[in-house]
Amino acid sequence: MGKVRQGNKEPRKQPQMNAKEKKAAKHARKHAGDHVPFLPHDAGSAR
Q: Do residues 25 and 17 touch, judged by C-beta distance below 8 A?
């Protein structure tokens, strides 16, 4: 008969977001500033 181990570990918490959700959120944050500017860069040269 071996010793009985008493585990004092707490149960693992569920993650707030899974890996796919994390990646999607990171991608959204990274591309949040990607928008078309109101004035194109060559607007001043067309006279």
A: yes
Separation CA 17–CA 34 (nearest Å): 24
Q: Which residue has the tokens 């607007």?
A: 43
Residue whose tokens read 């585990």: 7
Q: Round to whole Å and give the CA distance between 14 and 43.
A: 52
Q: pLDDT of 1-44, one tens digit each?
A: 567 777 788 888 888 889 999 999 999 888 777 766 676 666 55
The predicted structure's pLDDT at residue 46 = 53
DSSP-derived secondary structure letter, 39? S
Q: Which amino acid is at 5?
A: R
Of 40, 24, 41, which Cα lies nearest the Cα of 32? 24
